[in-house]
Amino acid sequence: MAERHFKYVILGGGVAAGYAAREFVKLGLKAGELAIISKEAVAPYERPALSKGYLFPQGAARLPGFHVCVGSGGERLLPEWYTEKGIELILGTEIVKADIASKSLITAANEIFKYDTLIIATGSTVIRLSDFGVEGANANNIFYLREIDDADKLVAAINAKKDGKAVIVGGGYIGLELGAALKINNLDVTMVYPEPWCMPRLFTAGIAAFYEGYYANKGIKIVKGTVAVGFDSDANGDVTAVRLKDGRVLEADIVVVGVGGRPLITLFKGQVEEEKGGIKTDGFFRTSIPDVYAVGDVATFPLKLYNEQRRVEHVDHARKSAEQVVKAIKSAEEGASIEEYDYLPYFYSRAFDLSWQFYGDNVGDTVLFGDNDPTSVKPKFGTYWIKDGKVVGVFLESGTPEENKLIANVAKLQPPVQDIEQLEKEGLAFASNI
Ligand code: FAD
User: Fold this and answer.
1) Is the CB of 119 under 6 A from ligand 1?
2) Which ligand 1 atom sits closest to the C-alpha of 47?
3) Residue limits of the FAD/NAD(P)-binding domain (predicted)?
């Protein structure tokens, strides 16, 4: 039984792990102190690329092009960087058991990794239709997208099924980005989702109307208000059709399912305190157990701005929580203190020529402004969310970097609004005047 010991272990080799490694080096790390253990076979990379540039028919993004920290304009950490800094990248290694009492992480082959300090950064996993017993959901060419291996399989299928038919199940981030990516690859795309409009967790009806119109103009068919209840396949086990609850049957050579994810915390069940489906932390990402921290998708942390414990499954928080946790660990070692995490939620997405950003909280009344006509040559529009007389969230499609900074500022400062009609008229000018 092989046993190794490290001062710091990061479990998971995704976005948060990479940004944490960079922060450790910045704040002072000795060779051999840090290990990153990851199920994936590659060094940390910017995961959002998998549903965007990775799927381009020409000039597709490939590693090493999008290793962290390029996604935030930082240095690209190639595998050699970890070696140079004396960081052990233990790749292709899945931890199947965590024993917090003995500070041990264990693989299926019974390798044991001991730590003094653990950072849990295991991210999320996709929800599978087979989890709900959807008939035929294990057919070939039904894809989910979380890791680079998933993306490689999808790319192979896109190449094998040229000009074929694709069905996207789910109308969230993955559904919208993948719908666009497959269309760009010249597949005949149909999207299916049960809600009255796409991305209902963030989009208002007005925002969604633009994207649905835009997608329809690109030739994407959208089927709403129903769900996939079964899949047909041929003698080879390849999917041939998606059966819908409303009785319709959609032919399919490729199916991509994006119906949500869940944080990967099973290894720690019963060993750390949980909240809202994640591992409960404080503003320094400390869990209920000393020397055990949790960051990124798995952490349910105090969102100071809203005075509430929240979990955020977005890349910006993965990066920032990773930096915060390393600062917290290092300062505690030196007996110093740092400020609590004070996060402004920030989400974004890109598809076709579109690009939106959202900052803040999407609660309260909404005001749509600008040109959200999907047939416009240069559509540009946004939405303000207003709660208790203050603007608390802002969405903007096709903003310039400067305009995106302005809306972030509004969400942070939460300026009061007296006159909603005036706000609608002013649109983006309101943000410029804050
Ligand atoms: P991850 O980056 O998921 O990393 C977790 C790592 O832990 C993985 O390497 C995994 O293999 C490893 N791991 C898990 N369990 C074990 C184990 N038991 N043993 C060993 N290793 C393990 N967010 C945005 O804000 N904008 C976007 O446009 C956007 N696009 C996205 C597109 C896709 C396709 C996906 C999947 C996500 C996207 N996200 C986006 C979300 C964003 O990527 C995540 O919020 C972010 O990656 C979370 O970082 P993390 O480090 O917590 O987890």
Assistant:
1) no
2) 43
3) 6-322
DSSP string, 124-180: EEEPPGGGGT-BTTT-BTEE--SSHHHHHHHHHHHHHTTT-EEEEE--SHHHHHHHH
In the reported structure, the alpha carbon of residue 407 is separated from the centroid of ligand 1 by a whole-number distance in angstroms of 26
How many A from CA of 322 to the centre of ligand 1? 13
Mutate to test the pocket of ligand 1, among 15, 93, 155, 285 (most ligand atoms within 8 A of CB): 15
CB 88, CB 36: distance < 8 Å = yes
Nearest Cα neighbor of 119 from 271, 275, 286, 312 is 286
Ligand 1 close to Cβ of residue 149 (< 6 A): no
One-letter amino acid identity for 9? Answer: V
Report yes or no for ipTM above 0.90.
yes
| Identity of the amino acid at 238 | D
> What confidence score (pLDDT) does residue 2 get?
85
115: left (phi over 0), alpha (psi -120 to 50) or beta: beta
Of ligand 1's listed atoms, the one at least distance from the Cα of 317 is 45
Ligand 1 binding pocket mutation candidate from 122, 320, 356 (most atoms within 8 A of CB): 122
H helices present in 218-314, as ranges: none
**Lookup result for tokens 């790319």:** 155
pLDDT score, position 159: 97
12 lines ligand 1 (CB under 6 A): yes
Q: Name the one residue in this structure whose structure tokens are 């006509």.
A: 373
DSSP code of residue 261: E
10-residue mean pLDDT profile of the chain (434 residues): values are 93 98 98 98 98 97 98 97 98 98 97 98 97 96 98 98 96 98 98 98 98 98 97 98 98 97 98 98 98 98 98 98 98 97 97 97 97 95 98 98 98 96 95 92
User: In b/e form, how buried is each residue of 369-387, taking b as 16+ CB within 10 angstroms?
Assistant: bbebebeeeebbbbbbbbb
Ligand 1 neighbour 404 (Cβ under 6 A): no
